[in-house]
Amino acid sequence: MLQGKEILLGVTGGIAAYKSVLLLRELTKYGANVNVIMTKSATEFVGSLTFQTLSGNPVTTDIFTLFASSEIGHVSLASRADLLVIAPATANIIGKIANGIADDFLTTMVMATRVPVLFAPAMNTNMWASRVVQRNISDLKEMDYNFMEPAEGELACGVVGRGKLADIDAIMDEIKALLSPNDLQGEKILISAGPTEEAIDPARCLTNRSSGKMGYNLAAVARRRGAEVILVAGPCAELENWGIKVINCKTALEMADAIDQNLDGVTSVIMAAAVADFRPAEQAAEKIKRDGNYCLELEPNPDILAGLGKRPDKPFLVGFAAETNKLFDHAQGKIKRKNLDMIVANDVTAPGAGFSVDTNIICIIDRDGQMTDFPLMSKENVAGVILDHMLKLKKKRRLLA
Ligand code: C5P
After folding, report:
1. pTM of this structure
2. For the chain, which has fewer Cβ within 10 Å, the N-terminal or C-terminal residue?
3. Domain housing 144
């Protein structure tokens, strides 16, 4: 999504300026071309050479040097850009822009550009809470400028409160959202993710190797593209800090219940969770002792997806088929048995596909038996092609408003 995008990164003079070096690295890692503009006070915190080296582009700090070149710098940079992000944004820069002051390169650029502008403020807690800063932000929001909420925590001045620069991952997510098409607006998508966990006794459980990454990526990409997203997830400790609101559950029965209670107005369900097919018939109250052979009796869990497929008001249903052999046959069988609209199949034994890894190799099969193969991709890109395919099928069947 960031490949080939032109990003302008404005850096202003706060202690969090060093964190924008990390933001620059993330942006370039995903293929964006970044031009950095620093205010004079930002250069007191971090040297411009750091940004120049990491972006591979000259850093602009002085409005007057630009006019010496053949192009009028701020106009040409502003017209080429896809997005301008100011991180950290001080109370000073927010105040200047809100009041139409353009006395340096960054403020001039903000006024000259027509691309989306994202502010990631960072300042002392009292400054953040001050009426003048809040009034300026509310004026700017009214004029369609975008804002990240600063994070809470211990600030450089020792005070604990709100005012820290938002998490770099959260800023990246918002940048991607601003660069994404809004083509899922009006869709309410329920996504399930991760494994389920079925207790055997207080210490042990039956679970599987699902990491939840596929479902979380689907939720993040769908949200960026304008969908309202409900994420129901089994235990995925690694992913708890993704900043996505999650309805947590443990067992398959809890997941079935959570899905059932959140179906109101849902237009599509994507079941990326690896739901346990069986649970122990009985859960031991005390830890089972090693005492000769032990036979664990299992009973089946409900098939959540098949249950949804039987509903008269069935939403558009996307299932997953993690297989180790006869991929197409098994996946097609599942579409019919569970009354699905499409299924995402992958061979979990292929290198780079399946559980725990950040990549996947999928093929999508729809109910007419049409199969589309995709190469090895990041799970984020896989999420994108699944949502594209879903939209395409919905449009074909005129299921969109
Ligand atoms: O039949 P199988 O378990 O391979 O089907 C996989 C699909 O069905 C996945 O989308 C999974 O989330 C869903 N499923 C379910 N309830 C179960 C088992 C699987 O919804 N008990």
Report:
1. 0.86
2. C
3. 6-178
